[in-house]
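Researcher: Please generate the 3D structure of the following complex. Treat every line as part of one assembly.
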Amino acid sequence: MGAGPNLEGMAFTKEENEWLTRVGPGTLMGELFRQYWIAIVPTSFLPESGNKPLRVRLLCEDLVLFRAGNGKVGLVGAYCQHRLAPLYFGRIEEDGIRCPYHGWKYATDGRCVEMPNIPAEQQFCDAINHPGYPCVEYGGIIWTYMGPSKELPALPEFEFALVPEDLRRHRLFRSEGNYLQVMEGGIDPTHVMWLHSPYDLADDEVALVHQGPQQVVANKSRKRTPDQTDIVDTPGGFMYGTRRSLNDGTSLWRVNQFMVPFYSMPPGGDLRGARIYVPIDDESCVKWQIAWYPNRETKDKSKETPRLIQKNEEFTEPTNQPFGFIIPKANKANDYLIDWDTHRSRRVGITGVNLQDMCVTEGQGPTPILDRTKENLCSGDQTTGKARRMLLRLAKALREQGATPLGVREAEIYRVRGTSVVVPDNLNWVDSVKERVTVARSAA
Ligand code: FES
Ligand SMILES: [Fe+2]
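Model: Done. Output below.
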């Protein structure tokens, strides 16, 4: 046996798996995530008041999202405090939402303000404590803060949030997997050349139709196994680079980012990418894919276009589940509409990188939450192990010492990007990619 890589700290106990994956109120991760702004939906999903409300669930809490007549966004508990009628069917008014059953009214911040089914002197609005969370609209997204602090977190300075509206695109899907396993797919350096690549790396036809431009370049190395993987700490998490030698004194480096608590960025070119993995509850999450150009000149010059919604990714008719309005047509229940002929001959028969990811991350083991005591992690999983340890560390420091988690106050740590770049072998790759993976203060 040769000298193996350092896999210390890579075994996870049943208890740690529980800590990492449970997100409801009072859980370790639930408390951690409640410290941050949480993306709910693009602003375009709730463009104007009077639209129907949206049923959402965040960190195991059922909520109704609506835009009141005065334009303010409200995010309040889904069930009326009187007899628990569903506020989804409530009437949206100038400054709140009124329960359809007996007319109790809630302001956009959740305060109960009227009990019109009983005489004024018998009303007890002040005694009612209804969930309601502040929302902001930022970067084309409605975000909320569900934490206990009076002081709101800093808004993360993501490049996609800072560029003009027409330079970015949001895609999001309800995924039937615990947020952690879905996120782990986003920081996993070794699956790309398997799950998402043609069986024959020279099969350009498959590559061009189904893969992003960065990956087509990777295929040209004709190497599935990276020559080297380095992980480097960053202010907001870590980045990792995988190297494939091009056998001419240069190497292709693909650089991904992980930022706390649940963000990743794949290698981007002109068009950059970010992912957000928002826990709906312990068994499902919203998987965001955001694409943007850093500026208009890049967009005008670029041959790269945002990945279109593939036919199989179009949404089903909305269901009455939370986030039931973003379920892709090809999903777990129908085997992602796999084409077995293609699967036999050319590539994984599920169309598109996104659904390919879903087919594995939604099915890891027989239980809804991946049982991490049953894994056999290898050196290719070091990024996964590192992210888990980082989350546990932050959550414990918060609970045991009241330590404000990384990123809650430091908006600038999110000024990063992924990249894919050829670097001469005699240069240090970290130095070489520094400018590309940093969003300068003057930019955007
Ligand atoms: S259940 Fe909502 S007002 Fe009665
Ligand atoms: Fe993937």
